[in-house]
Design goal:
The protein is α+β, with helices and mostly antiparallel strands. The chain contains 12 helices and 8 strands. Helix 7 (about 245-255) packs across helix 9 (about 320-385) and helix 8 (about 255-275) runs antiparallel to helix 9. It is elongated and about 145 Å long.
Length: about 450
């Protein structure tokens, strides 16, 4: 029996130990700021890595375009075995076998210089890919920020829901006490119970909304471990110092998408020149070193030779291929111009919408702060009146509903205000630059990736 008791005690101690480890893990979950999430997203995002590979591929494209400007050197060799020797009075007509090997140098260039045009296009494509990568990073960071604020909203909504449940519990308890002393009817208690039940339902919904918001943030950032987030301060110097016109000018000069579109226009122009160059003659140069051997050897056998040649070829007719390719290149050039103009108009609208959204959220925030202060005082006053029988249960429920609604709206407005600042920075093309300047290690990460 004593051994069984000792064994049970050991099992219990082991279970308590495991529970302690689990609790300590949850208590010391990693806590991230928005800046931390930015850094992790830049490290782990598959979308950013795909864009980085596009940039890498563009660099290799330059190497391919540059390789065309260098001559090609190749080695060759062959062995021929004949069915029989053939001899005449003049000598050997057909040997038993023959071998040859050598080196060959070839270089072809279009007289239009289209190879240089292709090299110039590849350089511009690298620069365009760099701007595309910048735009992808900036857009992704804003997605991280949006998911981050969704989690903050969900956390705040959960806290409000918990506070609401606690207030309604106190109201339910106060109603029960007044019912016992006969100050109110049972209807008041039932109404309080119903309101409490509804608040508990909203609490469950708030808990699940927080879990869903964290799931989205986990997916976007690439987090794996248990974590929590904390509020980050947002600098608003960009918004307060510039008017709408200045913000538009900043967007037109800073947006990486516009810079990429401008380069795409130049690449399309070079593409037209490159396609047109196909109608020009092509100059080809070759140089060959040849070594031969055969058995038996004829009297006129030349064992070694070196020769070179120049060839010019001019395409005369190919069924209309060059003309069709030229028209296609011109059409693509017009497309890039239309796309660029459309992008400028879209960015103009984005900046206006983001600016007016910021102005709206700023004014809404001021109004809701006053509304919450009023609703809090009103609830406290009505609650005191209800305790002394000077207010009805409906008055308390109405006051609580007003307070709950105003608190939820204020929490939503605060985060919407911060997010509107980030959105304005995003549409003006300064979000990533702002993040890089916060000294959080994100800048070092970006430099390593480039």
């Amino acid at each position: 029996m004593a051994e069984k008791k000792i064994f049970k005690m050991i099992i219990q101690v082991f279970i308590v130990f495991l529970a302690g480890i689990a609790c300590s893990g949850s208590l010391y979950a990693e806590e991230y700021t928005l800046d931390d999430l930015y850094r992790i997203a830049l490290e782990r995002s598959e979308i950013i890595k795909i864009s980085e590979e596009d940039y890498y591929i563009a660099e290799r494209g330059k190497e391919k375009a540059l390789s065309v400007l260098f001559p090609t050197i190749s080695a060759f060799g062959d062995y021929t075995k004949y069915s029989e020797e053939k001899v005449s009075s003049l000598g050997i007509l057909q040997p038993d076998y023959s071998t040859s090997w050598g080196l060959r140098l070839d270089q072809s260039m279009s007289l239009s210089g289209r190879e240089l045009t292709a090299l110039r296009m590849s350089k511009k494509l690298i620069e365009k890919s760099r701007y595309d990568l910048y735009a992808v990073r900036e857009s992704y960071l804003f997605s991280v920020a949006s998911a981050y604020y969704d989690v903050l909203k969900a956390k705040n909504a959960l806290e409000i829901a918990k506070a609401n449940v606690e207030r309604l519990k106190k109201h339910r308890d106060a109603s029960a006490i007044r019912l016992k002393v006969g100050e109110v009817t049972k209807t008041h208690l039932l109404r309080a119970e119903a309101e409490l039940s509804g608040a508990q339902t909203e609490l469950v919904r708030a808990e699940n909304n927080l879990k869903m918001a964290k799931t989205v943030l986990t997916r976007i950032v690439g987090l794996t471990e248990d974590y929590d987030i904390k509020k980050s301060d947002i600098k608003i110097d960009l918004v307060e110092e510039y008017d709408l016109y200045s913000l538009k000018e900043n967007a037109f000069s800073e947006r990486a998408e516009l810079k990429s579109g401008d380069l795409q226009k130049k690449i399309a122009e070079d593409e037209v020149k490159y396609t047109k160059g196909a109608s020009w003659p092509t100059l080809s140069i070759e140089g060959v070193y040849l070594k031969r051997d055969e058995d038996p050897v004829s009297p006129f056998f030349l064992e070694e030779s070196i020769y070179g040649g120049i060839e010019i070829s001019f395409p005369l007719f190919e069924g209309g291929l060059r003309k069709a390719e030229f028209k296609e290149a011109k059409a693509k050039q017009r497309q890039t111009e239309f796309s660029y103009d459309d992008l400028k108009k879209t960015i103009n609208v984005e900046v206006e919408n983001a600016y007016f959204e910021f102005q709206t959220q700023k004014e809404v925030l001021k109004s809701l702060e006053k509304e919450v202060a009023f609703a809090t005082d009103n609830y406290n006053f009505i609650s005191k009146q209800y305790e002394f029988g000077l207010a009805s249960s409906i008055d308390v429920i109405d006051a609580n509903t007003l307070l709950l609604t105003s608190e939820e709206q204020l929490a939503e407005a605060r985060y919407n205000y911060d997010l509107s600042i980030l959105r304005l920075k995003r549409v003006t093309g300064t979000l990533l630059k702002t993040v890089m300047g916060q000294g959080s290690g994100v800048e070092n990460q970006k430099q390593q990736q480039e």
